[in-house]
Amino acid sequence: MPDPRTDYLTARRDAIRDAAEGVFVRWGFDGATMQQIADEAGVSAGTIYRYFASKDDLVRAVARACSARYTAQFESSAQTATSPLELLMTAGAHIWEGIGSASARRDAILQLEATLVAVREPTSAALLAESMGEMRRLIEALIRDAQTQGEVDPFIDPTALAWLLMATTNGVQSLALQLGETVDTTAAWRVFEQLLAGIRTQEDGR
């Protein structure tokens, strides 16, 4: 039976994290203050520390939430996909289709902020590596499964391909953030699909 107290605490923690996302988008990880986050969440700064030990703890929670939103795209696509490669391509198409949305814009800004934190503060690089590594492992696992099932060329390095897919997606997201509708993400995905046709095995090629 669900524990109302636990549900309340989880909801309160999520609300504070969501408020932090909005403040981080506006002011950056470095520029944001705990008081700004408290004001956004409608709580006292002391209340935040009951749920998050520090701003770095909040940054980690936000990075994990961004990663979870990407993972959710794969979980949603898994309900209809009939093979690992189809799942990878379907999830990729959904992610690219949503690049122009407000939520994607927010996540792109947060990811760029995390990258800057990692570059400026090497001791904080784990903040980015944690969320990026999780996504890379997910994509790499799908590629390996696709290779096992004969869909993808077995001589392709699955780790390198996973990083390449992520780098291309992140690059398009950054361009869309800067240039807006000038970037036709739908057309870019169609071309990207054509390029990815080269990873299929000859027997699976379509």
Question: What features would you describe in this structure?
Answer:
With 206 residues, the protein is mainly α. The chain folds into 2 domains: 1-52, Homeodomain-like (Arc Repressor Mutant, subunit A), CATH 1.10.10.60; 60-199, Tetracycline Repressor, domain 2. 76% of the residues lie in helices and 0% in strands. The protein is built from 9 helices and no strands. The longest helix has 28 residues, at 4-31. It is elongated, with a radius of gyration of 19 Å. The chain starts with a helix and ends in a 10-residue tail after the last helix. The relative contact order is 0.10. The model has no long low-confidence stretch (mean pLDDT 87).
Topology overview:
Elements: H1 4-31, H2 34-41, H3 45-51, H4 55-77, H5 84-97, H6 102-120, H7 125-148, H8 158-179, H9 185-196
Cα-to-Cα separation, first versus last residue:
50 Å
Share of residues in helices: over 70%
Shape summary? elongated
Radius of gyration: 19 Å
Beta strand count:
0
Taken in chain order, the helices and strands follow as HHHHHHHHH
As for the CATH topology of the largest domain, it is Tetracycline Repressor, domain 2
CATH superfamily membership of the largest domain:
Tetracycline Repressor, domain 2
